[in-house]
């Protein structure tokens, strides 16, 4: 069916929906991954965003139960050049169109995604609307302008768990709120859920950690009552600066136990240390972002999904060691403070898309906890 994509700057693209009727709005971004569309769809860091896939043919391997990163589709809308409705993969349990339709998500095709991506690169990520109901470009552009900006939005509160749970054998095991305690004395990790991906939890478990996942608003006193070996700060969507409650808690936990932050967790840790964050023009989203590891000189090809970054010049270099930088724009990708047992990376080491497996970051975190 006919659809229209309208951007807040007045640009519009005629297209068609390959899922359902309706309309949606959000921040328009692009992802350069060639595969992994199901992980993209279910990554909570995409909350409030319409995602354009730059790879032209999407849907080839269908949908399966193993590749989800949360309990639902998180994107506001999905854009592809050409949808492939006949999946060819032995793991497929259905097709992408039905999967999106079942969750009420509009997917569109038959538009020039190269031109759209180039426009976003030149003009920056911006608000947009997709509609099958309103095909009037002027009307839809005006509605896009009225959508909330990503700057200033605390979206972590929208995706975090409402109550704590154990992560055991690859599954969520919800606990009684009044019975928070670890079950044995092996490495125990409290993971703050700002929009946590399942594969991060799998990696922590693979390192021998017992993991309790807690809501984003959990207090420092509640964490200390658990007496964990370490504290993990997860990825998540939106602007880090409005998440003031988490920054306050992190400040109170610095120096108490080893802390490891990824993506939004990296940004929140940077704010807790006195740094500043800023919005990137079009963000880093894809499985091919080159990052230099300054500790060994190696280049890591990383998976990333973020629209904000920590300003590298606002961190105190006397205490903070810069460990990773992005080779495309020299933005901060990682830091550590040895005397406080703090590790942080902006990219997603649990994805490990390149030749250098970034799982070592989880192993470093485990080693810090063992030394405690």
Helical fraction: 10-25%
What is the residue-averaged pLDDT?
A: 95
The spatial strand order of the largest sheet comes to 11-10-13-12-14-15-20-19-18-16-17
The name CATH uses for the topology of the largest domain is Rossmann fold
Order of helices and strands: EEEHEEEEHEHEHHEEEHEHEHEHEEEEEH
* Discrete helix count: 10
How far apart the termini lie comes to 60 Å
CATH class of the largest domain: Alpha Beta
- Provide the low-confidence segments as ranges: none
The outline comes out as globular
Profile the largest sheet: 11 strands, mixed
Number of strands: 20
Number of separate structural domains: 2
User: Hey, roughly how much beta strand do the residues contain?
Assistant: 25-35%
What is the CATH superfamily of the largest domain? Class I glutamine amidotransferase (GATase) domain
- Which structural class do you get from the secondary structure elements? alpha/beta
Radius of gyration, in Å, reads 20 Å
CATH architecture name of the largest domain: 3-Layer(aba) Sandwich
Task: Break the fold down into its secondary structure elements and pairings.
Elements: E1 2-7, E2 12-17, E3 23-31, H1 37-42, E4 49-53, E5 57-58, E6 77-79, E7 82-83, H2 96-102, E8 106-109, H3 113-123, E9 126-131, H4 137-145, H5 156-159, E10 165-168, E11 171-174, E12 188-193, H6 198-206, E13 210-215, H7 220-226, E14 230-233, H8 244-253, E15 259-262, H9 264-272, E16 277-293, E17 299-310, E18 321-326, E19 332-337, E20 342-345, H10 360-371
Parallel strand pairs: 3-4, 4-6, 5-7, 6-8, 12-13, 12-14, 14-15, 15-20
Antiparallel strand pairs: 1-2, 1-9, 2-8, 3-9, 10-11, 10-13, 16-17, 16-18, 18-19, 19-20
């Amino acid at each position: 069916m006919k659809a229209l994509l309208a951007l807040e700057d007045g640009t519009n693209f005629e297209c068609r929906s390959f899922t359902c009727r309706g309309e949606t709005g959000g921040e328009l971004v692009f992802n350069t991954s060639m595969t992994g569309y199901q992980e993209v769809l279910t990554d909570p860091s995409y909350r409030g965003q319409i995602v354009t896939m730059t790879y032209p043919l999407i849907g080839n391997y269908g949908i399966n139960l193993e590749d989800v990163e949360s309990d639902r589709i998180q994107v506001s809308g999905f854009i592809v050049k050409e949808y492939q409705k006949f999946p060819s993969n032995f793991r497929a349990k259905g097709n992408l169109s039905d999967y999106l339709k079942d969750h009420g998500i509009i997917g569109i095709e038959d538009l020039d995604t190269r031109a759209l991506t180039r426009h976003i690169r030149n003009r920056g990520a911006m608000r947009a609307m997709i509609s099958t109901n309103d095909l009037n470009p002027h009307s839809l552009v005006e509605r896009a302008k009225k959508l909330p900006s990503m700057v200033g939005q605390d979206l972590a509160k929208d995706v975090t768990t409402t109550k704590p749970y154990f992560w055991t054998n690859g599954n969520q095991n919800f606990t009684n709120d009044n019975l928070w305690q670890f079950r044995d004395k092996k490495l125990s990790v409290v993971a703050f859920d700002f929009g946590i991906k399942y594969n991060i939890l799998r990696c922590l478990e693979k390192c021998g950690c017992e993991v309790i996942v807690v809501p984003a608003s959990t207090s420092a006193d509640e964490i200390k009552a658990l007496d964990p070996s370490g504290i993990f700060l997860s990825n998540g969507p939106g602007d880090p600066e409005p998440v003031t409650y988490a920054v306050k808690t992190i400040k109170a936990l610095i120096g108490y136990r080893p802390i490891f932050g990824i993506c939004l967790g990296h940004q929140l840790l940077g704010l807790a240390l006195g740094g500043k964050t800023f919005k990137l023009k079009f963000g880093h989203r894809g499985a091919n972002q080159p990052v230099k590891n300054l500790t060994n000189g190696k280049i890591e090809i990383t998976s990333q999904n973020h629209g904000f970054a920590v300003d590298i010049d606002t961190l105190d270099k006397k205490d903070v060691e810069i460990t990773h930088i992005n080779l495309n724009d020299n933005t901060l990708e990682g830091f550590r403070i040895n005397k406080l047992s703090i590790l942080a990376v902006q990219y997603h080491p649990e994805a490990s898309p390149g030749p250098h497996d970034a799982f070592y970051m989880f192993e470093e975190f485990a080693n810090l906890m063992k030394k405690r």
